[in-house]
Structures are given as C-alpha cells and as structure tokens.
Amino acid sequence: MNSLEGTDDRVLANSVRLARNPPVNIAPEDEHLFRAEYTRDIPAFLIDSLGAAYIDENHFIFEKFKILDISLALNRMDKMSLLGLVRFFIKSYLLKKTVHVSSRAFVVTDNWSGGFFHWMLDVIPKIASLYKMDPEFVFLISEDTYQVAYVKESMRLMGIENFYTLKKNRIYHFDRLEIISPIGYTGNFHPRMIEISRSFFHKTLNATSGSCIYVSRKKASRRRIVNEDDIIYYLGTRNFEIVCLEDHNLEEQIKIISRAKMVVSVHGAALSHLMFMHSSSRVLEIRGENDAIRNCYFSLASVLSIDYHYYLAKEADEGSDEDLLVDLSAFEVCIDTFVKGGE
Prior knowledge:
Blueprint lengths: L10 E3 L2 E4 L11 H4 L4 E4 L2 E12 L4 E3 L2 E2 L2 H5 L7 H13 L2 E11 L8 H18 L4 E5 H4 L2 H10 L4 E4 L3 E12 L9 H9 L11 E5 L12 H10 L3 E3 L6 H9 L1 E7 L15 E7 L7 H8 L3 E9 L8 E2 L2 H12 L4
Parallel strand pairs: 7-8, 7-10, 8-9, 11-12, 11-13, 13-14, 14-15
Antiparallel strand pairs: 1-4, 2-3, 4-5, 4-10, 5-6, 15-16
Helix pairs in contact: 4-7
C-alpha cells in the first residue's frame, strides 16, 4: 500500500491552499456573496485507525460501553443525552445481533450520505482515493444508503466490488476500523480527490458536443422556479435542450451532462454533475439573491476549471429562499453574456 501523497500511508490527500477567480460575470455589488471563497485552505484528509471497534448501520461506533466521539460527527450531533445513551445500549446490546468480521474496513459514509450531493461529492472521492491507494480496501455502507439506485449504479460504474453493507438490527465488530478525517467536511473540494473520482467514470463520459442544456427542477418538491415555463420557452429560442435528470438513470445523466458545452440550472443536487463536465465548458447557476452560504458549486467549478456564471433570483415567498422568481428581462441579458462566454 502506498500513500497518494508520498510515503505516509495515513495521508489520503495533503492540505492545500486554493486561490479562486471570481465568477466570470461578477458584479461589484455581488462580491460579498463570493469573497469568502476566493481563498480557501483545504485540510489534509487522513486515515485514522480506531483499532478493534463496533459499528451499527446508523454510524454509531463504540468500544464496549463507550460511544466514541467520532459517532457524534458522523451523525451530525453535538451530544447525546443520558437517556439517549441508555436507549442506545439497550437497543445495541439487547436487541441486535453481533456480527464479527475479521477484516480491516473503512467508514466512508455518515447519516447524510444517501443524498445525491453528499454521495457524489463527499463519499465517492473518499472511495475512489482509497481504492487507488489499495484496491483491497473494504468500504462500509449502510444498507439504506446502498438501496438508493444511484449509489448502486455509481459503484457499478466505478467497478467497486469490495464493500460491506451494514444491515439493520446488527452490530458489527471489526478487527480494525478506519475512518477518514475531516468528518462532515463538505462544500469545498480537494482537487486531487475530485480528479481521481472523475477518472473512475472515464468510460462513461462523453466528449463535448457543444450542446446547451437547461436542467429543470419542476419535478422537485422545493427550490423551484415559479415562472419556469417562461424560462423554458426563452431558453428554447436559444437552442437549449430541456432536461429533467429524474427521468434518467445515473449513467444516462453523466452522458447528458458530460457532452454539454453549457449548463444552466437552479441551485440543487443536479449541479453535482459538474464533476463530469469538461474544463472547456460553462455553467450558470440560478441562486437566491441574498445567498452568501451556498457556494459549493462555485467552488466545484473552480476546481474543475469550468467557467462559472450566476444569476440572482428573488424569493418567491418573503422569508423563504426555497422557490425563486426570475426576472425574465434581466435573465435574458445574463444568458446573452453567458452564451457569448463572458466576453
């Protein structure tokens, strides 16, 4: 086994300082939305050995009657109450069967990992980087997460077969349990790990065909554009293809996005597919006008050398940043700049 970053076999990826260019169409009055991301320190990703330990399908890790602090991070919890501890141990020791596994295994998921964004951009980079380090590594995935269609399909497309599903009503005792730190680090991406992840899908990627694609969220339950019909009509006049990714399996989604020269979409998990676009491409993200937090796709585009544009939409309902209302005249100007490449 060799480290990806030198001789230390605990290092999955070294720390790195990233300097990002502003969005291509940045306006001075919008600088405050992106400025915090122009320079970002990405911490090193390290392999931490927990030794012999128990784990359940909910990512609680413990030794005998002690829950390890790492479990709280995996479950995005600050603490567990005394009553919660009592209930946990009753359920774990009295109501679940213990399964001993004589193996070294890696915890690569947490309780958010079933979501498309987190699976594609948090979990897959860990799996891909670990597999490249040693194809014999075993990965742990909860049964609920593995039952998600795109999780199964992504593992198939990557050719990953060496994994273990954590089933419900079981406690697993591994001889050596490993975890990747930092835990729960998301929204800023390590360039090396994203590069490795892309390489696992090289057979699925299409060459850029010059197509222009609008990814609709009209079938989503939230974060939609309330006047999307007007947007779709206008983009149709600009020769954009309208796509609902929900109508396609993961392999088809990757092929659709990887052939695109230009992609337009409202902020949402579909933009995780930026990982499969080529460096010569462009993306325009429709986002809330006051949103200085959700910069993950700006960050991802920067890592991949994709030209990032944005359009700021108003809240459809006061006090909510979910559904958005697009001013069609302003949007047309933005699209014109986008199509011309920001010139």
